[in-house]
Amino acid sequence: MKNHVRIVRLLTILVSVGAIACMPKMLSGMQPDSPFKTFVWLFPLYIAGSGVCAWLCAEGRIEISYILLVLAILSTVLLGYAVTLP
């Protein structure tokens, strides 16, 4: 049973980290003089770091792992919204 739980956790983390695929769309939808350009370029590092931290703390502190994943998903949505602002 424990192996099944690990696989589910890994799939959840991979789906959350899959938000890195949104970066090209964010870059193409951004205004040329947008102040969010730095955030968009650093975005994959943040998401990858959140995924690694979520995996490392998944064994002992599952709540922290899920909080990190929820924050990563929310930041993806909010940054995607912010780059489309005029």
**Gross morphology:** elongated
Strand count: 0
Q: Which structural category fits the helices and strands?
A: mainly alpha
Unreliable runs, pLDDT <50, ≥5 residues? Answer: none
Topology:
Layout: H1 2-17, H2 23-29, H3 37-56, H4 62-83
How does this model look, in words?
The structure is a single chain. This protein has 86 residues and is mostly helical. It has one domain. 76% of the residues lie in helices and 0% in strands. The chain has helices at 2-17, 23-29, 37-56, 62-83. The model has no long low-confidence stretch (mean pLDDT 84).
List keywords for this structure.
mainly alpha, 86 residues
Quick take:
This protein is mainly α and 86 residues long. Helix content is 76%, strand content 0%.
